[in-house]
Amino acid sequence: MLRLNNIKTFYGNIQALDDVTIKISEGEIITLIGANGAGKTTTLMSISGLTPPRTGEVMFLGEPIHELSPNRIVTMGISQVPEGRRIFPHLTVLENIDMGAYLRSDKEGIKKDIEYIFDLFPILAERRGQAGGTLSGGEQQMLAISRALMAKPRLLLLDEPSLGLAPKVIRQIFDIIVQINTEHKTTIFLVEQNANLALKVADRGYVMENGRIILSDTAQNLLSNESVKKAYLGI
Amino acid sequence: MFMTFTILVIKVDPIQRSVSWRWENMVMVGVGSFFLSFLWRYAMARKLAGNKNMAEGKILKTTIIQRLMEDPKLFRPALIFLAVFVVAFPFIFSHYQINIMTTALIYVVLGLGLNIVVGLAGLLDLGYVAFYAVGAYSYALLNYHFGLNFWFALPIGAGLGCLFGILLGFPVLRLRGDYLAIVTLGFGEIIRLVMENWNEFSFGPSGIANIPRPDFFGHEFSLQNATIFTYFIMIGLALLTIFFVNRLQNSRIGRAWIALREDEIACQSMGIDKTKTKLTAFALGATWAGMVGVMFAAKTTFINPPSFTFMESAIILSIVVLGGAGSITGVILGALILSLAPEYLREVREFRMLAFGACMVLMMVFRPQGLITNVRRVYKFEKSPDSKKEQNL
């Protein structure tokens, strides 16, 4: 479904990604783990077109998308939950969710999807008239995920959904992620620091270090891999 | 007291070669600042108390206008009263008053136009007056060369304003914040300097005179009636702007502007085309300035470059900031205050600008969000019965 072929991404003169190759098939949950500054977020931004790669190609459903603008990429069905949630603090919860449907024009479908999201996250339904900035961290993360879901993505890019959240809330959010994956066959690309949890929900995983992919295997194998254990799982 | 000591207390007379000590002035300054400091403390304490109340979840509706807006029982009569007043205004007051009011209305529309760019889209534009100049000059020149009348010039001026908005927009929208402000400031000056120096085109600093006032299907009015007519056109234009901006604010693109102001990256990952959205804001803001520019030329019948200095841009921007960025009523009120106050403060001549400055400083301390904070539209739901309580925060 999505292929990154040898992409190299730069911030000015600084190279952030070196020859990254990732393959994602339909319906999978793929996770990308690594330390701070390894290039995980850059990988996501390269897919969504916010920092397009300098060389290499990104193929989505057989079409190259690395030269498209971010809004075209969203239209094609890739939706991103940015790192640190980045909800709109002064818009209400409902308006935030509505922003996710910015490119859609089917009113009925949007209405139905909002209902679906309120089923998924009942707390958001309760808080729909509240300004986004007044929500707690966990609620904001739910809001960010909902907002991304409103674009009806085929591929959902999640950037550190566990950032700064309590373990209980993290578990809740990961449950929802799995639920979205099974119910809608939405492919999920999950970037995480919390390697243990990410590998438990994922089908396959990639390990990144200094802008390179150093390991890729099934999540099961990675969990039992000695070097991964040492470096990322803290066992 | 010590700072003013040398100015107010010691008086050196170089001709008489005498030094007089005016001690009574020192007492006055002392007493004055003593009471002022009390007033200041009191106001600060009130502000703090207000903040605390907000934190405790009590919604304080401080301004009368906000309360008026929300209660339909009060709002409707107020609106009717306002409408009657507006219609009756030119027949009650003098020629001079009507002229002042028309100017104030021009500022209302300019303020609302800039409000799209600054208040909604959050792009700091310091060269807004350039588009205003474009509108004014397009009417003046088209009329001079081709004898085009006001009603044809109005849309052309608006169109040209829009065009210039896009022209400026393309290169500068990569910039953000301060940098954008500087470039727009430069653009504003460029337009003015071109008008000042390109004699063959714009008649330079001498300006263009004898621009006809608006006519009514070819019928021309006497001076008195033309003023009244101009006033009514301006009212119409202001209403149109209010309607349009109001609709715009709650539209998809308006929401996109607000979202873009809050978080660009999130917007992009939402599929909002950053450049196009910002450009629309710039173009729409400029359109209004162009239109009002035509109006300005028709009202004053004479334009020259000094009408379009940076000071104008600054005033329009202060209208938006003072009134409360993003809020339509706020901007209208701000425009009326900022354009009417200097007129009516003529009595106190040399203190006029001082009072004006003091007002601005006080505003920024006590109501930094503007006179009237933007109350965003509230959406209601039928589904849950207790949803009403949750709204409006």
**Alpha plus pi helix count of chain B:** 17
Number of domains of chain A: 1
Uncertain stretches of 5 or more adjacent residues of chain B: 57-62, 380-393
Specify the biggest β-sheet of chain B. 2 strands, antiparallel
The geometry of chain B reads as: globular
Give the topology string of chain B: H per helix, E per strand: HEEHHHHHHHHHHHHHHHH
Helix fraction of chain B, binned, reads over 70%
Based on the structure given, which CATH architecture of one domain in chain B is correct?
Orthogonal Bundle
What do you see in this structure?
The complex is a heterodimer of chains A (235) and B (393). Chain A is an alpha/beta fold. Chain A has a single domain, classed as P-loop containing nucleotide triphosphate hydrolases (Rossmann fold, 3-Layer(aba) Sandwich). Chain A is 40% helix and 27% strand. Chain A is built from 10 helices and 10 strands. In chain A, the strands form 2 sheets. Chain A has a 6-stranded mixed beta sheet, with helices on both faces. Chain A has a 4-stranded antiparallel beta sheet with strand order 2-1-4-5, with helices on one face. In chain A, strand 9 and strand 10 (212-218) form a beta hairpin. In chain A, helix 3 (93-100) runs parallel beside helix 6 (137-149). In chain B, helix 4 packs antiparallel against helix 10 (223-249) and helix 5 (95-120) packs antiparallel against helix 13. Chain B has a domain at 96-366: ABC transporter involved in vitamin B12 uptake, BtuC, CATH 1.10.3470. Mean pLDDT of chain B is 81; it is low at 57-62 and 380-393. In chain B, 35% of the residues are buried. Chain B is globular, with a radius of gyration of 24 Å. Chain B has 17 helices and 2 strands. By secondary structure, chain B is an all-alpha fold. Chain A binds chain B through residues 48, 50, 69-71, 73-75, 79-82, 86-92, 94-95, 98-100, 102-103, 125-131, 134, 147-148, 151, and chain B through 252, 255-256, 258-259, 262-263, 265-274, 376, 378-379, 381, 384, 387, 390-393.
